[in-house]
Structure formats: C-alpha cells, structure tokens
C-alpha cells in the first residue's frame, strides 16, 4: 500500500487486487459475528474531514472505522472554524496536534487531499475532491463487479451519464482498466470533459449500441448542483437518450448487472423498475462500501494481515 490513498490512478494491479482480496477476508472475518467488529485499530484515531456534504460517504467511513474499533471524529466545515475563515492548512495543523492517525478528506476543490497529505503525518484518504477522483467508490464498485462477474479481465463495462462533473467516472475508468476491463463511456457531447479521448476508455454517444452484450452498466447521477449552464435541453430529453429503462437493461448480457453510485435521480437517469429490479446491485454497493473502506483503513493503519 502507498502511504496515502489519493487517486485510483495511483494503484497498480497487484495493489488494487490486494485491497479487494483484503476486503473479502474482512467480510469473511465478520460474517456470522453477533458483534460485527474487529479489534485491529483499537487506539487509533480516524478523522472524517468533510468540507462538502455527503451523508452516504461519511457514514460509510465512520461505520468502517468503528467496525475496526478505531476512535472516530467527524469534522464538518459548517459550524466549524472553517466557516469563520480558517484555512485548510490551519485545520491540518489542528488535526496534527490532536494526533490523528488517518484523515478522510472530502473537498469541493480538486487536489485538496493531496495538499493535505503534505501537512499531516497521518495517512490521508481521498473521499472525493472536486471533479478529480473518488478512489474508494471505484474500489467498492470493482469489488461488487468482481463478486458478480467472477473477475474483471476482458469484461465489458459501460459507464453512462454526466462524465464531465463526475469524479466517480474518472476513478472507475482508471481502476477498471488497471484490472483488465474494457470500459465504454456514453454521454452527450456536452457532458464529456476536454481530453476524454486520452482516457483509457472507448467513447460512444449511442447508448443502445454500447449496451448490447455488456457485462455491466454503471449509471452516473446528473449532478445538477455542479452545472452552470444548459448541458441538455430538458430532463425528459436526457432520459430519452441516456436513461436506463427495462428495454435497455435487457440489452445487457444474460447475467449483466446494473450499478449506480447514488444518490439516484429516479425517473431521469434510471427508472424505478430497473433500480429496484433483479439485476440491480445498487443496495449491495452501499454494503460493500463499508467493507472496502474497512480494508483501506486497515491496510493503511495496520500494514499487516496477521489479525485477519
């Protein structure tokens, strides 16, 4: 493991597979336990440093740390000294003085976790920075895909939606390609970033054609809060061209699965019938997120597997 987990692009294949294998061992270790906890990080302190709202990710990291018996401090920018003008560097020094062993950072500015890692002695985990990356989301997606598909080598994965504003898309493309998958990005031209042709993925504007025979499709949330202009005419028009309904789901391979990082805009990027259907693993992604984040914290703070 590297000292920090800042980007999925920093992980080579052996390291990524080691993380996923460790998550599988942790899942086995706590399965069937009345108290689903391990004592491996007792006495360690994990700080959730969130400058941007994300209830799902924060709770997932908090639960992961507590299941490893670590002490958890939740720090929200709202109502803190940050709202009074304190800088990120001042906050980092405060955490350093408190003896934080790991800092899980979510920030609206790309590169903030990387900068934070230069100011603290503890380990830093990127929980999403701007439109850059969200590595633990990519890891939990890969973990979910691997469980259902048996492996990722040469599997066809289609990622659909707002790629321009999505850190999840970037991290997934990099990690899934590292693990041997063939990735296709599907989006309106207005929702693709400049330079996407240099990404290790195929780009398509035809969702129906891309879905035929695919092993999995990952729908991205249309991030309306990040949009400053009209990237598509109407929600109905977007749904007609790039939404996943039952007809399109049936274009997947027989055992193809549907993923979504959440939260979902039901009826826009995905219909309720598909989101709640038999091929959907969206709820399982949330469960797997806790397990994968346990593995990340465990390997960063423990560095060994003796307790498993």
From TrEMBL:
Provide a Gene Ontology MF annotation, just one. Answer: amino acid binding
Q: Give GO terms for biological process.
A: 'de novo' pyrimidine nucleobase biosynthetic process; 'de novo' UMP biosynthetic process; amino acid metabolic process
Q: Which residues form the Aspartate/ornithine carbamoyltransferase carbamoyl-P binding domain?
A: 3-146
Binding positions (L-aspartate): 84, 167, 221
Please report the stretch or stretches of sequence annotated as the Aspartate/ornithine carbamoyltransferase Asp/Orn-binding domain: 154-300
Which reactions fall under this protein's catalytic activity? Answer: carbamoyl phosphate + L-aspartate = N-carbamoyl-L-aspartate + phosphate + H(+)
Name the protein family: Belongs to the aspartate/ornithine carbamoyltransferase superfamily. ATCase family.
Protein name from the UniProt record: Aspartate carbamoyltransferase
Natural source organism: Nakamurella flava
């Amino acid at each position: 493991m590297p000292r920090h987990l800042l980007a999925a692009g920093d992980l080579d294949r052996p390291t990524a597979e080691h993380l996923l294998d460790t998550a599988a061992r942790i899942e086995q270790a706590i399965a069937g336990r009345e108290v689903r906890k391990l004592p491996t990080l007792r006495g360690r302190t994990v700080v959730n440093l969130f400058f941007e709202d994300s209830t799902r990710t924060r709770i997932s990291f908090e639960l992961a740390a507590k299941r490893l018996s670590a002490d958890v401090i939740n720090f929200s920018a709202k109502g803190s000294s940050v709202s009074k003008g304190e800088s990120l560097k001042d906050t980092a020094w405060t955490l350093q003085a408190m003896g934080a062993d790991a800092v899980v950072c979510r920030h609206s500015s790309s590169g903030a976790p990387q900068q934070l890692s230069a100011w603290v002695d503890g380990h830093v985990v990127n929980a999403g920075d701007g439109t850059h990356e969200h590595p633990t989301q990519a890891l939990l997606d890969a973990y979910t895909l691997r469980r259902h598909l048996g492996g990722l080598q040469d599997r066809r994965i289609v990622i659909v939606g707002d790629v321009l504003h999505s850190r999840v898309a970037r991290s997934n493309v990099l990690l899934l390609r590292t693990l041997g998958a063939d990735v296709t990005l599907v989006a309106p031209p207005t929702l693709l970033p400049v330079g996407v042709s240099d990404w290790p993925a195929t780009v398509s504007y035809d969702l129906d054609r891309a879905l035929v025979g695919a092993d999995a499709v990952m729908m991205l949330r249309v991030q309306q809060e990040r949009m400053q202009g009209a990237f598509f005419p109407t929600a109905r028009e977007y749904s007609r061209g790039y939404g996943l309904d039952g007809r399109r789901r049936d274009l997947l391979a027989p055992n193809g699965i549907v993923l979504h990082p959440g939260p979902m805009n039901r009826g826009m990027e995905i219909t309720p019938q598909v989101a709640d259907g038999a091929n959907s693993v969206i709820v399982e992604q949330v469960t797997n997120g806790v397990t994968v984040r346990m593995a990340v914290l465990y390997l960063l703070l423990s560095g060994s597997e003796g307790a498993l």
